[in-house]
Amino acid sequence: MSNLPTVYLATDERMMMHCCTMLNENGIPSSFLNRQGISNKTNANRYKLWADNCRCMDIPRHEENPNRILAIYRRLMELEDRLLARVYPWSFPDQRYEECIPTERQNKLRRFLRLPCVPADRETIELAHSPDHYQFLLRTAAMSKRQLRELCVENDLYFNNFTFLAASLAAGAVIECVNAVTNPNMVAPMTTRAIALVRPPGHHAGGLNRCDRHDAQGFCYFNNVAIAAKHAIASGRASRVFILDWDVHHGNGIQDLTYDDENIFYLSIHRGFYPFTGYHNETGKGAAVGTNCNIMWDHEEMGNAEYAEAFRRLVLPNILSFQPGLILVSSGFDAAKGDTLGDCCLTPSMYYAMTNSLLAAVGWDIPIVVVTEGGYNHDVIADCAEAVALALLDEPWKEDETHYETKTFWSTKSILPVPSYQVLQHSNPFGLQRWLSQEPLHASKERKLRKEHALASIKRSAEALRKAECTIA
After folding, report:
1. pLDDT tens, 211-251?
2. What pLDDT was estimated at residue 133?
3. What is the pLDDT of residue 410?
4. Which of 27, 29, 403, 417 lies in the 20 to 30 Å Cα band around 66?
5. Which of 342, 267, 332, 360 has its CA nearest to residue 303?
6. Which residues are part of the catalytic machinery?
7. In 3D, which of 264, 361, 267, 291 has the Cα closest to residue 320?
8. What is the DSSP string of 141-201?
9. Res 354: pLDDT
10. Contact criterion met (CB below 8 Å) for 369 and 327
11. CB 385 within 8 A of CB 75
12. What residue ranges of the chain have pLDDT lower than 70?
């Protein structure tokens, strides 16, 4: 193997079969790959994923459509090519590396280590969901089109005969990542970092404000992250799991499924809209009081500075205090500038910095699995996913390479990790306030007001944890 850092990658083209478009009984149209900018001849092996089995037309009729993970997958493959070209340049730039480098050499230089995706089994899924919900989704595989249409919820849920397969594959992919980065037999994994590129997303599934008939809601069917967290604990792969959810929507499903579990800490940074949950005073139940933290933004257009302050004041201190054996990141990209639903202003560099700060805070020994959730602008989510992957691969971020940075008054230095004793004592002099004070004088009153609201939200969350007798200042 190469000495360069690597990351496990779990995904499966069959997740694209869950879609709200008409199914093409003859398979994908012959022009499908070309419309996606993929050459059948040159890239047949490279893009074999997505080229077989997917029977969905590529006409997006819903925000949560198959092209979301296709966009991210293509970008990650392009990133791997660029990183490979840097260490193994070839003479013919118009050729892909498969044509220039021997197969054995290719495998040693790969930065993404592919993991097979196996559908999660019933026993594992029922660690989080009820048997009735499992049976409900299983039955959809044999339902008629009319029955499936009757289950649909406008602007929310849709079903086809492949919904159960896609949802169980998504849950299974996250479980495979957890199994790969952890090992109860003390055998060192090849890497302690992984990306689960999955759909449908999962963090709303299982929320208490769900439909009376089943746990599905908010584009979500099985709660991928909650299932994986409970699996890690039940299998002895981790005694404590920290879940960080930076999707712009509150992960009500994760919160409700872990609310009374003292071995799982759930922290969410979200806006106060759908699903209209995730208030600062929701800190856990029973023995788990103090293991749930919500940072709810009251305003739209929250950006890098606000998230950096949240990391400095709450995210990193909570992680260091909880001392987890595994970190799961519910990585929605819908808080990014340009998303069609989120109306926030994070840049790709912020996703890089947030990921990098986690890695620097806990080191290489604590496994981290990043799981895709929301995010609906295909170009934006590809940019943000690449930024997260670069951080996981321990590659530098070059801010001058992206147009996002020209309108940003924030620096990655604002959330550089500090010694744990400083974090726990809340005495980091190198925090965000230094950078907030340096914003241009022409910053609008509305912008300053949003920052004041953000600080108030963070303070409310911190105070709620103190009242819950949490040890984190």
Report:
1. 555 789 999 999 999 999 999 999 999 999 999 999 999 99
2. 95
3. 32
4. 403
5. 342
6. 204
7. 361
8. GG--HHHHHHH--TTS----TTHHHHHHHHHHHHHHHHHHH--TT-PPPS-SEEEE--SS-
9. 94
10. yes
11. yes
12. 1-2, 21-61, 88-108, 184-188, 209-213, 399-447, 469-473
Quote the CA–CA distance of 356 and 53 in Å, as a whole number: 36
Q: E strands within 41-95?
A: none
Instruction: Let me know how many helices (H) and strands (E) the chain has, helices first.
Output: 16, 8
Q: Encoding tokens for residue 94?
A: 């118009």
Question: What's the rounded Cα separation, in Å, for the pair 122 and 136?
Answer: 12
CA–CA distance, 60 with 464 (Å, rounded to integer): 42
Structure token pair of residue 105: 């050499």
Placement of tokens 């790959």 in the chain: 33
Enter the DSSP assignment of 58: S
Buried b (16+ CB within 10 A) or exposed e, 382-392: bbbbbbbbbbb
pLDDT at position 85 is: 82
pLDDT of residue 214: 74
Nearest to 197 by CA among 65, 80, 344, 331: 331
Tokens 């947030």 appear where? 354
Q: In this predicted structure, what is the pLDDT of residue 125?
A: 97
Q: Provide the sign of the torsion angle of the four alpha carbons 468, 240, 365, 172, taken in this order.
A: negative
Which helix (H) or strand (E) element contains residue 426? Answer: none
